[in-house]
Amino acid sequence: MKQGKRRVLGICGGTAAFVFANLMVYSLMFRRPKKHWEQDSYDCAVVCGCRADEEGRPTEILKSRVEKAVDLWRNQKVRYLLLSGGAVHNAHVEAEVMKAYAMELGVPEAYIVEEKQAVSTYHNLKYAAGIMKSCGFADCVVVTSGWHLRKADHYARRAGLRYVMVPADEPKNRKKPELVRLYMETAFHMYVNMWKGLY
After folding, report:
1. Contact 146/186 with Cβ under 8 angstroms?
2. Which residue from 44, 118, 168, 187 has the least number of CB within 10 angstroms?
3. pLDDT for 12-51, tens place per residue?
4. Cα–Cα dist 65/43, whole Å
5. pTM for the model
6. Does domain 42-195 have CATH number 1.20.1250.20?
7. pLDDT classification of 4: cutoffs 50, 70, 90
8. Measured between alpha carbons, how far is residue 129 from residues 115, 140, 161, 162, 171 in Å?
9. Residue 66's closest CA among 94, 29, 43, 40?
10. What angle do CA 189, 129, 149 make, to 5 degrees?
C-alpha cells in the first residue's frame, strides 16, 4: 500500500515538475507583447488576417481588427494599412475581404497594401516584413486580437520588424468563456509548435 502511494506521489510530483519546467520555457520564449509606443506614428499598420465567412463577408473578429487599424489611420498614427491573409479556411482571400471593409470605412485604396499569400501568423509577419522592405516602410503597428497578441509578437520579433503591438477591441457579443478558450487555444498551439521545432 505504501509503495503504491509512493508511486502515485512520484508520478504526481514528476508531472508537476514537468509542467512547471515547460511553463518556464514557455514564459521565457514567448515574452509579453511589446505594447509600448516608442514614437508618435508608424509607417503602416500590419493587420493579421482571420477567416471570412462563407459568403465572403468579414467576421466579427476580422471587422474588429480592420476597425482598429482604420482608427489608427484616421488619427494619423499610421500612414498605410498592410492587410495580410490568404484564402485559408475557404475560397475568400482575407486581405481582399479586409480591403473591401477598410474602403467601406473610408480608407482610400491608395493607402492600402495587400498581402494575399499568408496562411498562418508566421506567414503574416514574414511576408509583411518583405512587403514593408519593398515599400520602404521602416516600422509598423501590428494589429490583431488581444488573445492573439503574444503569438503575433513572437513572429514580429523573429521577422526583425521595428514594431509595436496594438490589440483590436473584442466584439461586443464575445462571452468570457469563449475568450478564455481562445487564449488557451492560442497558447496551446504555440506550445505544440515550440516542441515541433517551428519556433
Report:
1. no
2. 187
3. 555 555 444 455 555 555 678 999 999 999 999 999 999 9
4. 18
5. 0.82
6. no
7. low
8. 10, 9, 7, 10, 28
9. 94
10. 35
Q: How far apart are CA 81 and CA 79, in angstroms?
A: 7
> pLDDT tens, 150-180?
999 999 999 999 999 999 999 888 788 887 8
Query: CB–CB of 195/162 below 8 Å?
Result: no
> Exposed (0-12), middle (13-18) or buried (19+): which is 130, by Cβ within 10 Å?
exposed
Q: Which residue has the cell 495580410?
A: 84
Instruction: Report the distance separating Cα 41 and Cα 45, nearest Å.
Output: 10
50: amino acid identity, one letter: C
CA distance from start to end of the chain: 45
Give the distance, in angstroms, between the CA of residue 49 and the centroid of all CA atoms in the same chain: 8
The set of cell numbers assigned to 191 is 506550445
Work out whether the CA dihedral 74, 76, 77, 82 comes out positive or negative. Answer: positive
**Cβ atoms of residues 78 and 69 within 8 Å:** yes
| DSSP conformation class of 108 | -
- What letter would DSSP give residue 136? T
Cell numbers standing for residue 126: 514574414
pLDDT of residue 199: 56
